[in-house]
Structure formats: structure tokens, C-alpha cells
Design brief:
With about 200 residues, the chain is α/β, with parallel strands linked by helices. The chain has helices at about 30-40, 75-85, 110-120, 160-170, 180-195; strands at about 1-10, 40, 45, 50-55, 60-65, 100, 105, 125-135, 145-150, 170-175. The strands form two sheets. Strands 6-7-5-4-1-9-8-10 form an eight-stranded mixed sheet, with helices on both faces. The protein has a two-stranded antiparallel sheet with strand order 2-3. Helix 1 (about 30-40) packs across helix 2 (about 75-85) and helix 1 (about 30-40) runs parallel beside helix 5.
Length: about 200
């Protein structure tokens, strides 16, 4: 299982945002591109992948590749799935999920609770990997087992987030010499895993 955890610092936690202005809605466009990068292949879906959007450190929206339906490559339809999930947030009690559409869940979890949950959902050993421009080159570390990649949206990690990830992460890595958009970083991470660390094509 591959998991991606994306922190949405300015993203709304209620459904009252316009699908016609996703950049103006706390950069929901960035988060939607991350969802499609994590789950979509050309004419297919990565059923072994999961992505969490942690919104404002208070809510999370989870997409399960093995169960999601009606996920298309465009940002608008993905944003509609996010908005539908947020409309169901009152049904999420504590850390109990509410399923808003097939394979899409909302819960009242911030970063720390999602990190706990990702560890519980992986059988056996998992590897928590923080993606950061100042990390170790990914080619210098072992290919992670059942990785949980944590990355930020268009903003830097907050001080609290950085401290929490420093405590929890098994690795802090960078994917290349240049800074990448979050969705591009997800694609590169997938390619690294698909090729067993760039060894198998």
C-alpha cells in the first residue's frame, strides 16, 4: 500500500466554496491535482494507493484507490467530491469516518491523528517519509516499505508540523535537485516505487 498525506493549510473545511474558483478557495486546485496524481493512471486507477487531504489540521478527506468511483482527471470534478465530503462532516463523529461517496471519506482528524491512523491501516512495517527540499536524496535511502509520504501544499510546513514530522518520520527525503509542485512530487514518488528505486523498467 502506498499512502500520501497532503497538508492543505488554507483549504476550506466547509462545503461553501465555488467550483468556479478553486485557486481562490484556499488552493483546492492544488489538492485536487494531488488526488489525481496519487490515484489515476492512464485509463486506470492505482488500487494500492490512498491519499489523505488534511484540511486546516482539523478535518481530513480520504480517497481509497480500491473503492473510489467517478474520479476523473479534471480538477473540478475532484473538487466536487471534496465538497460532497465536507458536506457530510457533521456525520463524522470523533475519528469515525463518514463515507460521502464510494471510496471517499471525511473525518475529524488533524495531522497527528491521521499519522496514527495511517500506521494502524498498514499491516506490518510501514515507512513514514517526509518529502522536503532539504532532505536526503531519495536514491541514497532504501526503497521504502508500505510508504506514507507526507508533503505540504503550496506552503511550507508550520513549525509544529515540522517538529511532529521530525519525531515521527523514518526518512526525510528530496526527490530531485529542483523544487516540485506537490502533485508532480507524487508522480515522481510513484515512478520511484514503480521502478524499484529506478532499477526496473
Amino acid at each position: 500500500m502506498r499512502q500520501f498525506l497532503v497538508l492543505g493549510h488554507d483549504a476550506p473545511t466547509d462545503p461553501d466554496f465555488s467550483l468556479d474558483d478553486l485557486p481562490g478557495a484556499g488552493r483546492v486546485d492544488v489538492l485536487c491535482r494531488c488526488v489525481t496524481a496519487a490515484l489515476l493512471l492512464s485509463h486506470g486507477i492505482r488500487e494500492d494507493a490512498r491519499i489523505w487531504l488534511v484540511l486546516g489540521d482539523s478535518l481530513s478527506v480520504r480517497f481509497e484507490g480500491s473503492a473510489v468511483r467517478r474520479l476523473n482527471p479534471d480538477e473540478r470534478s475532484t473538487a466536487a467530491l471534496v465538497r460532497t465530503a465536507l458536506a457530510e462532516r457533521e456525520e463524522a463523529i470523533g475519528h469515525i469516518d463518514a463515507e460521502s461517496s464510494p471510496g471517499v471519506f471525511v473525518s475529524r482528524r488533524g495531522l497527528e491523528a491521521v499519522l496514527d491512523e495511517t500506521a494502524e491501516r498498514v499491516s506490518g512495517k510501514h515507512t513514514l517519509v517526509t518529502l522536503h527540499e532539504n532532505g536526503t536524496p531519495i536514491t541514497a535511502v532504501d526503497v521504502p516499505t508500505d510508504p506514507v509520504f507526507v508533503l505540504s501544499d503550496h506552503r511550507e510546513f508550520t513549525e509544529r508540523e515540522a517538529e511532529l514530522l521530525a519525531e515521527r518520520s523514518d526518512e526525510r527525503v528530496r526527490l530531485g535537485p529542483e523544487r516540485l509542485h506537490a502533485n508532480h512530487a507524487i508522480t515522481v514518488a510513484h515512478n520511484y516505487l514503480d521502478t524499484a528505486g529506478l532499477e526496473r523498467y
